[in-house]
Automatic annotation (TrEMBL):
InterPro entries per record: FTHF_cligase, FTHF_cligase-like_sf, NagB/RpiA_transferase-like
SUPFAM superfamilies membership: NagB/RpiA/CoA transferase-like
Domain of life: Bacteria
Organism, scientific name: Ciceribacter sichuanensis
Name of the protein described by the UniProt record: 5-formyltetrahydrofolate cyclo-ligase
């Protein structure tokens, strides 16, 4: 089996496990993530942090993002500009949200485009070495690559539920490694 095929199998299995978490339990887990990650994530006020609004059965990190804002973070959300490109637009309190692709909402075109210094990254699966499997489209891998080409080196924090951990993720040269992962049971650095 090729790495690509292996990743597809792992992705299907871990997303099915995530989908099986009851909605009320996902809410409880998401609130636990805000509690664990809200104060553990080290940054100085003014740091640009990208988050995301949940789609499907993802963790809802809006409470976490709200807490990070109270600590002085500048928040931004991913916007799918075209089928290949993610931009990060600033999320300011009270701003109108619009459809931004991939089934989510975010700031409109009038919002400033920012380069995140810390990225809260959704994923399908992760392992204990910080390797991750995304959703298969490569949006985050390309976005991280573009940031690095611009001279930035964002800290990458995976957001997942414990059931998304696997023994081993097939790692390829183009894959990016996480610095840490935040789940309902805590914040773990690699």
């Amino acid at each position: 089996m090729s790495n690509r095929e292996w990743k597809a199998v792992i992705r299907r299995e871990r997303l099915a496990a995530r989908d099986a978490i009851p909605v009320d339990l996902r809410t409880e887990y998401s609130l636990a993530m805000a509690e664990y990650g809200g104060d553990r994530l080290a940054f100085v006020p003014g740091t640009i942090i990208s988050g995301f609004f949940p789609i499907r059965s993802e963790a809802d990190i809006r409470p976490l993002m709200s807490h990070l804002r109270t600590r002085g973070a500048r928040l931004c959300l991913p916007i799918i500009q075209d089928r290949e490109t993610i931009l990060f637009r600033e999320l300011v309190a009270g701003a109108e949200l619009v459809d931004t692709g991939f089934g989510t909402r975010g700031p409109g075109p009038e919002a400033a485009v920012l380069d995140p210094e810390i990225m809260l990254v959704p994923l399908s699966a992760f392992d204990a070495r910080g390797h991750r499997i995304g959703y298969g489209a490569g949006h985050y891998d390309r976005a991280i690559s573009r940031l690095r080409e611009k001279g930035h080196d964002p800290r990458l924090i995976g957001i997942a539920f414990d059931c998304q951990e696997v023994a081993e993720v097939p790692f390829e040269p183009h894959d990016v490694q996480l610095e840490a992962v935040l789940t309902e049971s805590g914040y773990r650095q690699f």
